[in-house]
């Protein structure tokens, strides 16, 4: 019996067992796929892309560089994990599911799916293949999945003190590394007990890739660093002082040992140099024992660097590269272009882009989709050092302070505000300097990013995108910790303390500026109060990001309390705030 016939028979039997199957679609039908992740099958034959925009999985013949099949799997796919037995796991953040698939040749079959918590984004499989862990951003959860024969089930959940994104097993499988989606935290999870052993902290944000070196002794990760001591003028931007983009090689043993400084004996490739920034790294692939390739989502480029050799060989690929894999022969890198529905090929010997081919016909984009492209485009900034996303990670915030002209002066760094759910909370900025999101887009690009004059239609597209960004559900709802009686009591305390003077429901903000007893370094005393909606998802507070605990806002600083609160009253007030 031929392999093709066997594959067809397997698909038919699986379809009967599951009662459903992915639908094969025509890649010539216009769509906006937005490839978010890409893997190479173990035999090196096919490239598989997970398409965020269309919920499809595209199968590409690697050597012929052509699409051989596209399958409608779900509403959105953002990650693929290869498993044993021609299986793979796909993550859908919209339907909140992990989907177990079977691939033989270009035939795709669904074996099962399991519901996940809100906002799943990444998955990692243990070296032995017996454990799968999925990261979920907004609930701050890791989910341990059990794969028994062809049955997928949730075994355990673990709540972290930060929002996880990248997850990676170290070689023995005893410890899982979980990286912060927004800030610079790295969790060490003991897999025997599925408990958090330790949290490492380091100066970083937007940790967007994490892989092991070829000999598995080093950890490579890509991230950004915002310097609140620099100011967003042309000098500090040019020299990479405001926003740096970094590819780091660090000793894995030191990372796993909380007593060690894991930066010691490490090495950093700066992704960017004066005159040529490298905004928003998105993925890393190891080439050999000493070399790696990193994608720069904000500038549409890749960089190839050798360990302990300064600088990167850079080459232009497509719009917003999101994923990169290296051929088995180590001669070609394949790069998925997230906003272009294409794959670029990069010759690793010459460090030059050698070609590009489409994943299908791309439809015309909406204004919101054009705004999303601009939001992630570091070329809008001076020399390509940063994009809007660099500070407003996933539309939220990296929690840091930036010294820019949003307050009409330098010298008083301000906490970067979340953009989620902000469309109806004008004016914008700590001093309320912008009446509309469009006006704020002009100010951000022209004054903060020094990117030159922004066209009105681009400012409007950015505003449309920002206005569409929804708030996630409240943290207590996502973590199933809501105490409704405490929330109601906390609401009464909120009213009695006259918090509604500045944070009036239902927006929990106000359009005016208020003097609440705080002063920035430029002696500004009146600020526009940020909305309290979604406050449970923040890690820093006040205009200068000086407070890192919501409890400390009241317990240490007594922020605008009319009367002293008992411990129980404060607990209830915090319950209420986390319910917003």
From TrEMBL:
Residues 1-19 form the signal peptide. It comes from the Bacteria. The lineage of its organism: Bacteria, Pseudomonadati, Planctomycetota, Planctomycetia, Pirellulales. GO terms for molecular function: cytochrome-c peroxidase activity; electron transfer activity; heme binding; metal ion binding. It comes from Bremerella cremea. Residues 366-470, 485-580 form the Cytochrome c domain. It is found in: Cell envelope. Pfam families: CCP_MauG, Cytochrom_C. Keywords: Heme, Iron, Metal-binding, Oxidoreductase, Signal. This is Cytochrome c domain-containing protein. Transmembrane segments: none annotated. InterPro entries: Cyt_c-like_dom, Cyt_c-like_dom_sf, Cytochrome_c_Peroxidase/MauG, Di-haem_cyt_c_peroxidsae, N2O_reductase_N, WD40/YVTN_repeat-like_dom_sf. Its main location: other. GO terms for cellular component: cell envelope.
């Amino acid at each position: 019996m031929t392999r093709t016939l066997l594959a067809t028979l397997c698909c038919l039997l699986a379809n009967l067992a599951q009662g459903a199957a992915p639908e094969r679609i025509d890649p010539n039908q216009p769509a906006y796929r937005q490839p978010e992740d890409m893997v190479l099958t173990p035999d090196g034959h096919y490239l598989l892309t997970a398409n965020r925009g269309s919920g499809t999985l595209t199968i590409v013949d690697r050597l012929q560089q052509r699409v051989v099949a596209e399958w409608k799997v779900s509403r959105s796919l953002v990650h693929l994990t290869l498993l044993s037995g021609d299986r793979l796991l796909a993550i859908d953040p919209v339907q909140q599911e992990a989907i177990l698939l079977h691939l033989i040749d270009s035939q795709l079959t669904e074996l099962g799916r399991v519901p996940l918590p809100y906002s799943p984004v990444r998955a990692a499989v243990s070296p032995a293949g017996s454990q799968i862990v999925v990261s979920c951003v907004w609930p701050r959860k890791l989910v341990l999945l059990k794969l028994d024969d062809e049955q997928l089930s949730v075994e355990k959940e673990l709540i972290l003190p930060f929002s996880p994104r990248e997850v990676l097993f170290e070689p023995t499988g005893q410890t899982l590394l979980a990286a912060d989606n927004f800030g610079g935290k790295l969790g060490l999870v003991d897999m025997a007990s599925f408990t958090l052993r330790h949290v490492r902290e380091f100066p970083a944000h937007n940790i967007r890739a994490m892989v092991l070196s070829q000999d598995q002794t080093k950890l490579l990760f890509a991230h950004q660093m915002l310097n609140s001591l620099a100011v967003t003028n042309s000098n500090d931007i040019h020299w990479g002082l405001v926003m740096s983009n970094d590819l780091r090689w660090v000793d894995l043993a030191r990372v796993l040992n909380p007593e060690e400084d894991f930066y010691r004996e490490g090495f950093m490739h700066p992704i960017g140099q004066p005159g040529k920034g490298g905004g928003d790294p998105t993925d890393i692939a190891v080439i050999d024992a000493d070399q790696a390739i990193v994608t720069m989502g904000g500038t549409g480029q890749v960089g190839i660097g050798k360990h302990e050799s300064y600088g990167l060989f850079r080459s232009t690929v497509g719009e917003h590269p999101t994923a990169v894999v290296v051929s088995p022969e180590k001669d070609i890198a394949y790069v998925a272009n997230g906003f272009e529905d294409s794959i670029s090929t990069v010759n690793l010997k010459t460090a030059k882009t050698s070609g590009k081919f489409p994943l299908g016909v791309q439809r015309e984009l909406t204004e919101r989709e054009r705004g999303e492209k601009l939001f992630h485009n570091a070329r809008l900034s001076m020399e390509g050092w940063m994009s809007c996303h660099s500070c407003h990670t996933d539309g939220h915030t990296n929690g840091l302070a930036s010294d820019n002209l949003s307050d009409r002066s330098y010298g008083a760094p301000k906490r970067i505000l979340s953009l989620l759910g902000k469309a109806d909370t004008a004016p914008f900025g700590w001093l309320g300097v912008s009446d509309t999101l469009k006006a704020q887009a002009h100010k951000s690009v022209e004054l903060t990013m020094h990117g030159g004059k922004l066209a009105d239609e681009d400012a409007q597209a950015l505003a449309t995108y920002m206005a569409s960004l929804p708030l996630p559900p409240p943290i207590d709802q996502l973590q199933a910790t809501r105490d409704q009686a405490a929330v109601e009591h906390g609401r009464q305390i909120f009213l009695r303390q006259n918090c509604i003077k500045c944070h009036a429901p239902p927006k929990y903000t106000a359009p005016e500026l208020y003097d609440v007893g705080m002063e920035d370094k430029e002696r500004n005393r009146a600020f526009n109060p940020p909305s309290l909606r979604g406050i449970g998802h923040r890690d820093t507070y006040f205009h200068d990001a000086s407070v890192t605990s919501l409890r400390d806002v009241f317990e240490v600083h007594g922020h605008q309390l009319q009367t002293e609160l008992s411990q129980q009253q404060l607990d209830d007030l915090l319950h209420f705030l986390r319910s917003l």
